[in-house]
Description:
It is a single chain. This protein has 630 residues and is α+β, with helices and mostly antiparallel strands. The chain is 35% helix and 14% strand. It is built from 20 helices and 16 strands. The strands form three sheets. It has an eight-stranded antiparallel β-sheet. It has a five-stranded antiparallel β-sheet with strand order 3-4-6-7-8. It has a three-stranded antiparallel β-sheet with strand order 1-2-5, with no helix packed on it. A hairpin with a 5-residue loop joins strand 1 and strand 2 (83-86). Helix 8 (195-212) runs antiparallel to helix 9 and helix 10 crosses helix 15.
Amino acid sequence: MIENRFDWQQFFRRWQEEWIPDEDDVEDLAEGGLTLAGLALSAAPAAEAEITAAEERLGTRLPPSYRQFLGASNGWRLDKGSIYRLGAAHEIDWFGDPLELTAIYQEGLTEHSTEQEVLLAGMWRRALQLETDSDMSYALLDPGDTDEDGEWALYVYKGWSGEPPDRYPSFRAYMQRMYQDFHSARAGSPGFVNDTTRALDADVERARREALSGRWESAQELLTEAERYGRPCARSMLRQLEVLSRGGGYYGFGELVADPRYTGELVPVMAAAHLRDNRSGVLPRRFVLGTETDDGVTAGADAILAQVRDGSYRYASDGAFGRAVAEARESARWGDTDAAWRMIRAALPLWSQPGPDLLAPLGLLADPVLGPVVTRERGLELLATPRAGRPGPVPDPVPDLDPPGLCWLADTPRWNAPHDSYRCLWVEGTEPEALPGLVGEDGCAGLTAPPGRRAGRFHHGPGQWDDSAPWEDRAVVSVGRTGSGWAFACDAAPRMSAPGNFFVSLAAAASRGGRAVVLWARRARDGRLTVFHLSVAERGEELYAYTLRGTDVERSGPVPGTLDPERGLHGVGEADRERCLLAAVQDEFGLSLPRHALVEGVLPQLTTRSWNRAPREGEAYGYTTIRFGR
């Protein structure tokens, strides 16, 4: 229910007492065109008889909060925004839609239009016009858009904007927002200090303590209110909470960006968002910090942008937290993003602020390796964890992201992969850095940087090279390390071919570094497993292999019974065949793959030698080239 006890006279008295002239007012006063008395906001209260006379003239009873407003001040001067003055009781009248906006808005209605859109289309002819002076703008009360308390919605239509009007649920809500805007416009003015600003600044300080203690939702509520009043740092701290609680989007951090203490934490996040959104053409190409900065900060921001763009940015922090971050990056670099997050989470209480207005280690989000580790769920966990030495309960950890083993490869739909195929190599007891020397293409210089985040989509390899023979099938693989000590290479988007007559498993070459396992699976568009290949080698020699096509099995060497597809698939339905085969391989060798690191594209890459051999004398290789053009 509406708070009938709301004291309009006290509200207006506080507003008038807090009012100070703005720059335009100061100029008018200096020129002698105005006096302070002439700049009064309020007017004398309207008598009950005046309000009743207006209602009789209009043929309706006015909504409660507007009626109470007239009884406290018969009109009001607004010195900010596009509405300059609200009229007295005898000045208000029906709008009548002189701009013929009804037809325009009704033309846009469809069978899918919302109730609010229908109300807006009919508002123009039935609305009550309140303003008597404005910048081509209208303050309109709609008797057709009411709530359970009898309040009419108020719309402010800016005729010059070409945009739909702003809606407020009641006249009181509109006036409270105008009071907040008045405060926001003068928040930076020297001498603008009063009981309201002091109370709000105390709330900002309380929000800072709440946020660092893990009570971020309480802090968010306090900062949201303070931001409406334009209190210093409220917006920048609120944006920090939003970065972690919402995930994604573009964020500006206001005046904090210009403070060298925070540049290293905030600018990388802005740079990453700028580059991401520029790819979709949302933002202008120029990197704008959104606040006035000196040449040193601007140059530093440009350097950070360049690092984020080329993937060389590395988040760093001081002390024990910084050491944990470095250790976490090494784990995430090779695929163990769950372990990396556990390290960061455990060290969060040891994180120290570079300045009082930074609420969390936001720079993590721009790190090309650690950024994908901090998912939205983990961002919420970070916010709920006490930091910077503050006390508070530790939240329950969110579940790990990576399923164990290999069976998740059989999930449908398959982990955002562009094709229903994958091929993988594991080498036991070998570091990932050794793989280029074992299976890299001729002239391979080593591992290359990750392809960059693809918003949950696998990086598509280059496929067929223009200068390669048609039978060659080199792969761009993501390289990492399993928790059980195997180096792995995974091609999540192999070419459309499958192991055939010219296929040469990389297992033998890779096994010079230790026991090696190769998997290659291919599925039809309807999800049926069409090909499943396994080969195992040791000391440069293939030990055994099989290729399953439908129900036919081609073997070489003594395949162990635990891996024999005919035994393992006995009595297994077609829908479970792939999962059953993967389970046998993971159990036999203790193999796994990190789903999150593969999806997010944080792993270094390697271009392998061809998985096919050249045709021998007397053999033929057929292929088709299709070109599209006019």
